[in-house]
Amino acid sequence: MRSFSRILTLIGFFVLAFTGPSIAQQSYGWSRMPDGRMVPFVPHALPGEAHGIAKAPPAGSPSKQIFESVTNEAILRGLSIAFVILASCTVILFVLGCGSRVVVFADASDVLMSASMFIAPVVTALATIGLVLLFTPDRPDAHGGFRELVQQNPAPAFAIVVGALWWLWAILGTLISSIRHNGLIVGTLVAVMKVGAVFSLLAVWYGMILNEANTLEGEKARFFLFLILAWFASRFVNGHRVTERREMLMRPARLTAAQA
Question: Membrane-spanning residues where (predicted)?
């Protein structure tokens, strides 16, 4: 019996000798790393908080932040440049339209043709969406080609073709009309500036329509702005003034040729 108690005492001693240090280390805040180093052990703590230092929330990488800042700056710079270009085109054409040397728009149909460069895509998109919603087949062939798609949706395809032809007519008509009235070099420059001026006027008009001011003061301001915009757009139509001036300049030459 005494020998058996001695055996249990020895077993307990060996168990305490092997497990005691690890228990003591964990209870007093120490733990052994896989590489054998002893580090303080803090339960339920993140690695950065073992020495009392709070871990900061993860942030984006510096390269990503720099890329986003550069991208935002590039977008703002591009928008600023585009705004300056559009404003410059509008002002230059307004000055030319007030004069009688360069034809900006020959007549109202010329204005409508240039405005169609921006009106045609919008009308085509709306018409295509409406026709797709009305005439789309119940079970379209998802694996078919372009011909099958056109056969299944003839009305939207027709709207896209008509819109593309309308848009092409507006671009070529604007370029040809400007060159016919002003020559090749000046006419090409005028046609390019027409794009910026028409886009600026349409953007202002569209923003005026979307204005949600339904008060009496808001309606008065909207009507006053519409009158200013209409007068401003009318100054671009100067074909008749340029024609009269050119005929006046050609009269002495005709009289001289008739007398000779």
Answer: 74-99, 111-135, 155-176, 183-209, 221-238
